[in-house]
C-alpha cells in the first residue's frame, strides 16, 4: 500500500524511491535478532581470543616486554632483529624444515597406500580400519613416553634394539645420537603411527566416491593394476590429495608435543639431542624467559612463514582449482 | 617367444582361485596390524612389570609375575597429583566438547540459513581466523588470558577452545544441505527463527553433533601445549601435563609411568571404539584433528 500510493500521485519520482523502500522493508528485524543471538558467542569469542589477542601481541612485539604483558617500552624492530640473528632460532627453522621434508611425503604415501590396501580388503575391512585408526586417539605425550622410554630408549632391551639385534645390529642410542642423526627415525615413526590412520580415513572416503564404472571401462581396455591406479585412482583423488597434503604440512609446522617430550628436558645424566623446533623455541622464550616481546615477534614471523608456504604449496599443487 | 612368456603368466593369474591371490594382501595387512598394536602391547607389558624387570637388559615378552602395584604407585606419588589431573582433564573436556559444539552449531546454522545483511562479513570474519596457524597463537592468547586473570585456572584452559572456526564452517556446510521443508513446516506452525532452530533443526543434527563433539572431546583430552602454557601450577595440571612431568622427573618410576599412560588413554580408546562410526564420519567430513 505504501508503495502504490506515491506511484499514483507522481510516477516520475516513484522509480528511484521504490527500490530504497523495498530494500528497507526487506530488513527483517526478527531475523537479524536471531542471527545476532546465534552468532554472538563465536563472534565475541573469536574477537577476544583471536583478533584482540593478535592485535595486542603484534603491538607487544615492538615493545621491550620482559616479564610483563603490558605495553609501554617501544623498541621498534629490536625483537625481530634479535630473533633473526639468534642462531638457535635459525636452527629451529632448519629443524622444522627438515622434519617437514621427512614427514610430509612419508605420511602422504603411507596413508594413501594404507587406504588402498584397506579398500581392497573384503573380509574384515572394519577391523583393519579400526586398528590403523586407533592410535589417533592417543596423545603425543603418551606416544612420546612409549617411544622415549621403551621403543627407542637406547638400552639393549629397548624394543628397537631388540628387533635390530635379531638382524645382528648393535644397540643404538637412538635419541642422543646426533651423528648420524638417527633420532629422526624416532620422531618420524612416532608421528606416522599417530596420524597415518586419520589421513587414511580421508583417502578411504575419496576412494569410495570413485565410480566403479571407471575401473570396468579400464578393464575392457586391458589396463594393468598399476595403470588403473596411475590413470584412474590418482586423478580421481586429486582434491582429497591436495587437502591431505595441506593438512599434513600445517600439522608438521606446528610440531611441539613430541619434540618437547622427547628432547625437551632430558633425564638427568642422559644427554639428549638438542632438537628444538620453532614452537619449542617460542615456548622457551615466552614462558621460560618470560620475554613476551620476543615470543610475540616469533609468533608473527612463524605465522608469516606458515601462511606463505601454505599459499605457495597451494599454488604449486593447484589448490583452489575447481575440477 | 617373448610374446608367449608375456602372455602365459597373465592367463595363469586369471585361472588361479580368487582367494589365493589375496593372500599377500592379508599377510601384509596382518603384519601392519601387529606393528600398529606394538606400542599398545608395550604399554600394557611395562605397566605390569616390576621396576627391576623393566630395567633388566634381558628382553622378556611377558611380565612374570604381574605387578598391579604400579597403578597404586601412580596415584601415591605426592609430587605428581595424578588423580586430580585426571579429574581436571575430565572437567575440561566435558565442558569444552558440548559447549564448543553447541556454539559451532548455532553460528553454523545462522550463517547457512538466516539471510540478513552482513552475513557474508560475519562469515569472512570467522574464516580469516582459520588462516592463522592454531598453535602459533599460544603467545597472543596467553597475553590476553593472562591479562584477564586466567593463568592457573580451569576457565583459562577452557575458554579459548570453546570458539572453533573449523567447527562453525563444518556445521555451516552441514546446514546448507539441510532439508528446507522441515524449517518451512515449523515456520507455518508459527515458530520464529530461534524456535525452528531449537525445536526442529537441533534435534535433527544428532549425527553431526555426535561426530564433532567426539572429535572435540578427543582434542581437548589430548591437548598439551595450551594447558602447559596456562596451567603452570600443579593444581591446574591436566593428565597430559602430569604425565609429561612424570616423564622428566628426577627419579623415574618407569612401570608407574606406563601405568599412567594406560590410565590416560583408556577412557579415550574406549570412547573411540564405541563412537567410532561418528568419529570416522567427523574425520572424513573435516580432516581435522589439530
What does this structure look like?
The complex is a heterodimer of chains A (about 325) and B (about 290). Chain A has helices at about 5-10, 10-25, 30-60, 80-85, 85-120, 125-135, 140-150, 160-165, 185-210, 210-220, 225-235, 240-255, 255-265, 280-290, 290-315. Chain A is mainly α and about 325 residues long. In chain A, α5 packs across α14 (about 280-290). In chain B, about 40% of the residues are buried. Chain B has helices spanning about 1-15, 20, 25-45, 50-55, 70-75, 80-115, 120-130, 140-145, 155-160, 165-175, 180-190, 195-200, 205-220, 225-230, 240-245, 255-275, 275-285. Residues about 1-15 of chain B have low confidence and may be disordered. With about 290 residues, chain B is an all-alpha fold. At the A-B interface, α3, α5, α6, α7 and α9 of A face α3, α6, α7, α8 and α12 of B.
Mean pLDDT of chain B: 87
Tally the beta strands of chain B.
0
Distance separating the two termini of chain B: 58 Å
Shape of chain A: globular
The rounded Rg of chain A comes to 28 Å
What portion of the residues of chain A fall into strands of 2 or more residues? under 5%
Number of helices of chain A: 15
Beta-strand content of chain B: under 5%
Q: Which two chains form the greatest contact, residue counts included?
A: A-B, 102 and 96 residues
Largest beta-sheet characterization of chain A? none
The overall average pLDDT of chain A, rounded, is 85
Amino acid at each position: 500500500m505504501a508503495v502504490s500510493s506515491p506511484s499514483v500521485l507522481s510516477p516520475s519520482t516513484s522509480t528511484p524511491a521504490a527500490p530504497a523502500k523495498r530494500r528497507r522493508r526487506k530488513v527483517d528485524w526478527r531475523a537479524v535478532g536471531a542471527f545476532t543471538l546465534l552468532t554472538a558467542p563465536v563472534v565475541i569469542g573469536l574477537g577476544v581470543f583471536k583478533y584482540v589477542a593478535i592485535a595486542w601481541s603484534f603491538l607487544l612485539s615492538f615493545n621491550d616486554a620482559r616479564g610483563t604483558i603490558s605495553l609501554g617500552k617501544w623498541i621498534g624492530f629490536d625483537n625481530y632483529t634479535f630473533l633473526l640473528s639468534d642462531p638457535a632460532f635459525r636452527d629451529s627453522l632448519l629443524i622444522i624444515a627438515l622434519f617437514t621434508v621427512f614427514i610430509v611425503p612419508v605420511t602422504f604415501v603411507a596413508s594413501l597406500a594404507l587406504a588402498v590396501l584397506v579398500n581392497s580388503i573384503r573380509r574384515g575391512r572394519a577391523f583393519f580400519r579400526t586398528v590403523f585408526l586407533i592410535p589417533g586417539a592417543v596423545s603425543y605425550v603418551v606416544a612420546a613416553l612409549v617411544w622415549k622410554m621403551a621403543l627407542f630408549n637406547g638400552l639393549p632391551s629397548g624394543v628397537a634394539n631388540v628387533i635390530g639385534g635379531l638382524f645382528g645390529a648393535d644397540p643404538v642410542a637412538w635419541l642422543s645420537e646426533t651423528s648420524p642423526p638417527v633420532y629422526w627415525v624416532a620422531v618420524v615413526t612416532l608421528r606416522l603411527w599417530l596420524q597415518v590412520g586419520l589421513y587414511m580415513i580421508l583417502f578411504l572416503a575419496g576412494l569410495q566416491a570413485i565410480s566403479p564404472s571407471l575401473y570396468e571401462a579400464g578393464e575392457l581396455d586391458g589396463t594393468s593394476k598399476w595403470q588403473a591406479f596411475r590413470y584412474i585412482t590418482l586423478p580421481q583423488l586429486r582434491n582429497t590429495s591436495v587437502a591431505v597434503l595441506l593438512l599434513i604440512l600445517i600439522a608438521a609446522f606446528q610440531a611441539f608435543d613430541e619434540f618437547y617430550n622427547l628432547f625437551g628436558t632430558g633425564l638427568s645424566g642422559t644427554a639428549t639431542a638438542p632438537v628444538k623446533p620453532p614452537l619449542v623455541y617460542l615456548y622457551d622464550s615466552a614462558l621460560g624467559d618470560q620475554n613476551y616481546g620476543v615470543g610475540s615477534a616469533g609468533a608473527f614471523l612463524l605465522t608469516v612463514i606458515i601462511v606463505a608456504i601454505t599459499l605457495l604449496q597451494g599454488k604449486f599443487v593447484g589448490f583452489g582449482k575447481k575440477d | 617367444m617373448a610374446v608367449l612368456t608375456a602372455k602365459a603368466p597373465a592367463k595363469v593369474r586369471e585361472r588361479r582361485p580368487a582367494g589365493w591371490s589375496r593372500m599377500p594382501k592379508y599377510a601384509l595387512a596382518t603384519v601392519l596390524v601387529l606393528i600398529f598394536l606394538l606400542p599398545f602391547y608395550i604399554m600394557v607389558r611395562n605397566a605390569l612389570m616390576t621396576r627391576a624387570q623393566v630395567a633388566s637388559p634381558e628382553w622378556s615378552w611377558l611380565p612374570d609375575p604381574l605387578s598391579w602395584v604400579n597403578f597404586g604407585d601412580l596415584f601415591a606419588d605426592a609430587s605428581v597429583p595424578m588423580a586430580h589431573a585426571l579429574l581436571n582433564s575430565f572437567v575440561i573436556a566435558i565442558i569444552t566438547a558440548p559447549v564448543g559444539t553447541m556454539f559451532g552449531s548455532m553460528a553454523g546454522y545462522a550463517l547457512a540459513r538466516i539471510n540478513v545483511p552482513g552475513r557474508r562479513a560475519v562469515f569472512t570474519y570467522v574464516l580469516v581466523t582459520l588462516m592463522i596457524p592454531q598453535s602459533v597463537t599460544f603467545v597472543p592468547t596467553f597475553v590476553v588470558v593472562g591479562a584477564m586473570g586466567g593463568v592457573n585456572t580451569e576457565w583459562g584452559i577452557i575458554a579459548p577452545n570453546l570458539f572453533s572456526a573449523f567447527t562453525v564452517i563444518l556445521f555451516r556446510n552441514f546446514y546448507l544441505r539441510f532439508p528446507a521443508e522441515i524449517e518451512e513446516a515449523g515456520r507455518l506452525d508459527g515458530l520464529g527463527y530461534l524456535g525452528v532452530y531449537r525445536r526442529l533443526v537441533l534435534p535433527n543434527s544428532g549425527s553431526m553433533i555426535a561426530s564433532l563433539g567426539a572429535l572435540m572431546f578427543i582434542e581437548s583430552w589430548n591437548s598439551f601445549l595450551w594447558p602447559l602454557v596456562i596451567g603452570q601450577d600443579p593444581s591446574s595440571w591436566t593428565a597430559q601435563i602430569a604425565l609429561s612431568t612424570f616423564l622428566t622427573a628426577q627419579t623415574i618410576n618407569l612401570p608407574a609411568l606406563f601405568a599412567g599412560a594406560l590410565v590416560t588413554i583408556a577412557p579415550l580408546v574406549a570412547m573411540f571404539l564405541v563412537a567410532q562410526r561418528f568419529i570416522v564420519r567427523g574425520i572424513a567430513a573435516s580432516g581435522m584433528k589439530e
